[in-house]
Amino acid sequence: MATNSRSASDAADSTLSLRTKWAIAGILTGTSLAAFVGAGSSALAVYFARRVITPSAKNADQEVLAVIQGDAGPQVILAATPDTTVDGVYSLFFDNGKGHARIGRIVSYSPAEQTVLREVEEVYSGNLSEARRGWWSGAAYHHPSAIGVAADDVEIEVEGGTAPAWLIRAEAAATAPVWAIMVHGRGATRMECLRAVRTAKELGLDSLLVSYRNDGLAPSALDGRYGLGSTEWRDVEAAIGYALDHGAREVVLFGWSMGGAISLQAADLSKHRQRIRALVLDAPVINWVNVMAHHAQVNRIPYNVGRYGQLMLGHPLGRRLTGLAAPVNLKAMDWEARAVELRTPTLLIHSVDDEYVPFEPSASLAEKNPDMVTFEAFHGSRHTKEWNVDPEKWERMVRSWLLQQLAPRNNPGGTGADAEPAGEAAGRS
């Protein structure tokens, strides 16, 4: 990555116009609201900004109508939604998250009744027959044992304590020179990453499925707010350090959604960035401004209101209302604008119908930096569910691309598995 990225982004942040600073000050003090967006709009801007950065409970918006016994086992009748009418394997969480079932293929779909009948592959916990509402998830498996692999529970030292992680070895008695470090998305947990473990094992990679601040497993940040990648990357850096201390020589970062933004920040800022061999990012946030603008539009929030919400996140004056310990530099995480600075080979997998993180910035990044970035489009998968819809395609695509990236490098000073990182070699010469 470019070594001057932090100074450049800091300089960009310091050039906010005087008008912008007065606008934020007006929202915060209430002295000039009428001149800008009005009292109601300013309150909406605050609410919008806080929603983006505040961890929140899951919304049990999926209706469960009945559980019946089919010829091959239990089946569940669900209210038809854009999620439940897409084929594949998913999870249904219910009873405030205490219940968890893995839901399989669609048996039948009735558009007229707006219901869908699906197979129940397994109930991990709870009584599904008593469930009335729940939430849908692409994290289909609850534990490594559910996909038939053994895992060690390990603890990674992070700011504020230790973060639990699952360590899955490619071979029972061996440590691979390249590890896969897997980073889940916003509002998810390390369960989300189990979808990639089989591919990593086939490639001979040990897998470290991590937790990070505010995800309910790792220690919370002092302010209790998401940094959208600007703070969480330090926990991934700690995970890379753990891998290096336990036999890895290089790592591949896998990231989903906000986990993609976190991985990009780690590749840009971490002291271990030279050890990051490649990035595999599924539905990643490439440009937070684009994502926030999309959600403002979907929720019919006026453009100016959404824009003021962004300004609150990025300016020190906004901390009084957002609760952030430090501003979030959205420009520093705009990889469309910084495309040429990305120097880590990167695979971007993104569904063109992603309803949460628009795919266009991923396609744009690949177009602007084709030497480093490969973009692969999926269709009909919605957000981060590309593997769920077509696991064979996802695994084949990732395996083929990573085989090229992990091939031994013959150039002097290369950082492949057959050569030590150039910086260390130089230090001993």
UniProtKB/TrEMBL annotation:
GO terms for molecular function: serine-type peptidase activity. Keywords: Membrane, Transmembrane, Transmembrane helix. The chain crosses the membrane at residues 22-49. Gene3D superfamilies: alpha/beta hydrolase (3.40.50.1820). Residues 417-429 have a biased composition (Low complexity). One of its GO terms (biological process) is proteolysis. This is Lysophospholipase. It comes from Paenarthrobacter ureafaciens. Residues 224-407 form the Peptidase S9 prolyl oligopeptidase catalytic domain. Residues 406-429 are annotated as: Disordered. It comes from the Bacteria. SUPFAM superfamilies: alpha/beta-Hydrolases. Pfam families: Peptidase_S9.
